[in-house]
Amino acid sequence: MRALSDRLGACLALVLVLVSLWQLQGMRQGIAIEHLRVGQTPVTRYAVLESDGPVIVIAHGFAGSTQMMQAYALTLARADYRVYAFDFLGHGRNPVPMSGDVTVIDGTTRLLVDQTLEVVAAVADPGASVGMLGHSMATDVLIRAAQDRRADIGPLVLLSAFSGAVTDREPADMNLIAGQWEGRLRAFGLEAVRMIDPAAAEGDLVRSGDVVRKAEFAPLTEHVSILHSRAAQQSTLAWFNRAFGRDGETDIPASGWWLLGLLAGIVALARPLARVLPRSVGVTEQLSARQIWAVAIGPALAAPLLATWLNPNLLPVLVADYLALHLFIQGVLGLAVLWGMGVRPGAISAAGVLALLVWGLGAFGLALDRYGANFIPIPERLWVIAALCIGTLPFMLADALATRGGQAPIWQRWLLRICFFASLALAVTLDFEGLFFLILIAPVMVLFYVVFGLMGRWVALRCGPATSGVGLGLILAWALGVSFPFLSAAG
Predict the structure, then answer these.
(1) Residue 345: cis peptide before it, omega within 30 degrees of 0
(2) Which range (65-79, 167-181, 442-456) has the least confidence?
(3) Taking Cα atoms as reference points, which of 368, 362, 382, 396 lies closest to residue 482?
(4) φ, ψ dihedrals at 470, nearest 5°
């Protein structure tokens, strides 16, 4: 009966993958997708064949990429706009690092504004204005670009917007859409509209001379899910149609749900695939409550105290050098504590590690890169990933041994996770200015534990915790190496 249930589950997962792929590919039907470069900036063009519609330039948020904005790009392209999305300096597949001082407007922000204007100049039609769409960090950049007289920019649609550059006159044509659960950003949008009409409410279209603005929210969304919000895409299309005097309409598919379906199906298929691996070693003995507390607390406290003192600032990826050192110290100390308790790694199955890498980085990673977010590193990032392995391998090996490859009681697994996040929080407290961006590691690690941790658990059942720990350590280095912005030494 169990074998039949497993086969049925595998079949359902496979069907989910195939249907999701069909839907996601269908969204691209009839759209010519072309990869270009403006200088060294990677630009992706989306348009129906022989389109002569207005030009829209799309910019992503911090630690984002062109792929994260493609739901909007495809929707606008189907409505006969010519869409150009690009990767900011240090992001996605852009090989040029971010530089400048991120704390001042004339530093990094100015460089990003100049980069945006360079892209606009390359793709704009002579004498025609360019519409722009941006998310999060990009909203401030686009607002400042629109105020620059070197380009005719407008209208603007800004998702999850914030900026100190908005005035009662500039930008003149602007729609600010925040997620329903982004209270502070909704308030910012409303404030920008009330510069024109103090009595305006969310959803009101306000005008004063040539200034036209609107602030609204996308239902049931936050900072990330707004990138697949059908309501926000519909509002975006309507805003550009109004500004350009067009009536282009198109169906807006549920891209976010189909992307989740594809990725969930790939994760689910890892379970039956793991069962065909050659069985090598069994799981280790379960740690007692006293032992698990020792493994969780001691290394988590020591790591930030030592790492903030030793922080070498060597790697050109935001906070990556600190994170590698932090993970190395916490992992090595965890392994030392486990060794003192008599816990040994045991044999490592090369087949198990390879299977985890092929499925995690290959199947899951390629799907994510094509439809969701950048996951394929450019050559310049490969050595950073290799350096991160110095920290991620001992950290994930210690985690796998302590949790018996994910087979330990759930409270023990939760304790280790909570102590790790608390350890990072302590590091930020000790060096807030230098390590503030460690806060961004939290969502990456949560997704890592949910997605890859589940795959690793199934591999550990077959090949032992050490195999899972090594495979997950390599995947974690990869995920961190492609997630954070590339920085120059001067940045």
Answers:
(1) no
(2) 442-456
(3) 382
(4) -65, -45
- 120, HSE (Cβ side, Cα atoms, 13 Å): 28
Report whether pLDDT(143) > 60. Answer: yes
Asked if residue 335 lies in contact with residue 398, where contact means CB atoms within 8 angstroms, the answer is yes
Q: What is the pTM of this model?
A: 0.93
Report in angstroms the alpha-carbon separations of 54 from 20, 47, 154, 170.
Answer: 31, 11, 11, 22
* 26 has pLDDT over 80: yes
Higher pLDDT, 69 or 104: 69
Structure tokens at 287: 């740690």
Q: What is the 3-state secondary structure of 50-108?
A: CCCCCEEEEECCCCCCHHHHHHHHHHHHHCCCEEEEECCCCCCCCCCCECCCCCCHHHH
Residues 57-78 pLDDT 10s: 999 999 899 999 999 999 999 9
- DSSP bridge pairs for 179: 218
Q: Render pLDDT for 84-96 as a digit per residue (tens, 0 to 9).
A: 999 999 999 999 9
* Three-state SS sequence of the chain: CHHHHHHHHHHHHHHHHHHHHHHHHHCCCCEEEEEEEECCEEEEEEEECCCCCCEEEEECCCCCCHHHHHHHHHHHHHCCCEEEEECCCCCCCCCCCECCCCCCHHHHHHHHHHHHHHHHHHHCCCCCCEEEEEECHHHHHHHHHHHCCCCCEEEEEEECCCCCCCCCCCCCEEEEEEECCCHHHHHHHHHHHHCCCCCCCCCCEEEECCEEEEEEEECCCCCCHHHHCHHHHHHHHHHHHHHHCCCCCCCCCCHHHHHHHHHHHHHHHHHHHHCCCCCCCCCCCCCCHHHHHHHHHHHHHHHHHHHHHHCCCCCCECCHHHHHHHHHHHHHHHHHHHHHCCCCCCCCCHHHHHHHHHHHHHHHHHHHHHHCCCCCCCHHHHHHHHHHHHHHHHHHHHHHHHCCCCCCCHHHHHHHHHHHHHHHHHHHHHCHHHHHHHHHHHHHHHHHHHHHHHHHHHHHHHHCHHHHHHHHHHHHHHHHHHHCCEECCCC
Specify the pLDDT at position 102.
57
Q: Is the per-residue pLDDT at 314 higher than 90?
A: no
Measured CA to CA, the distance from residue 109 to residue 129 in angstroms comes to 23
Specify the residue for token string 């100190």.
164
- Joined tokens for residue 47: 């348009």
Per this entry, what is the length of the chain?
491
- What would the pLDDT profile of 12-23 be if each residue is shown by its tens digit? 999 999 999 999
pLDDT score for 283: 56
Report the pLDDT averaged over residues 319-331.
Answer: 90
